[in-house]
Write a structure and sequence with these properties.
Blueprint: E1 7-11, E2 15-20, H1 25-39, E3 48-51, E4 55-59, E5 64-65, H2 66-71, H3 75-91, E6 104-106, E7 113-116, H4 128-141, H5 149-156, H6 163-184, H7 189-203
Antiparallel strand pairs: 1-2, 2-4, 3-4, 5-6, 6-7
Helix pairs in contact: 3-5, 4-6, 6-7
Length: 206
Amino acid sequence: MKHGYTNSTFGDGALVVKCYQGPEAAFRLSTESRYLRRLRGRLPVPRVHQVTSTSLTTRFVDGSHGQDLIDDGRAAEVFAECGRMLARIHRLGIVHGDYGPQNMLFHPATIETAAILDWEWAHPGRPVEDLAWLEWIVRSHHPEQAPLLPHFFAAYGDDVPGWPERQAAMVARCRDLLDFCARWEPGGDGEKLWRERLDTTAAWTE
């Protein structure tokens, strides 16, 4: 995937337009629009404004991105809120598919969730998929904050799978994204990036 993204997103402060790219773009668009409509009023998600054959437009949601708050020294609070919110998602029988602070907006004063974004990979599945992927995001992009991950797992509350199962889920997801990139742009930068990430993830120890 070019630059690691499967879509391009832009907004004007009132609306946000997301255009889907790569394999199964229409399916991912349909998935996201369906889940956003289904979850409206049940979870904090953006309101759908318009759907076309190639794009999804939602209402703008004000809030601070989780990764910015982590960089501002509020990782423990962000991780705990991510855990509480993920438990709510999983009680609905849903796997988000790309869950982590990179896809969440928070009220900066309270660190309560303002919106959960990017539902294009959502599906019925095993909770470990989301639990492991947030851990992967933190280990990959905020490694210095990895010791604070217990805040996330404790707030999630239910039994958290052990390290071997979580790592296996991370490796499986990396393989899926490697395959996605190989089909999109064989031999391209995205494929090389995810091959490196797969090797790195497989070599991690708890």
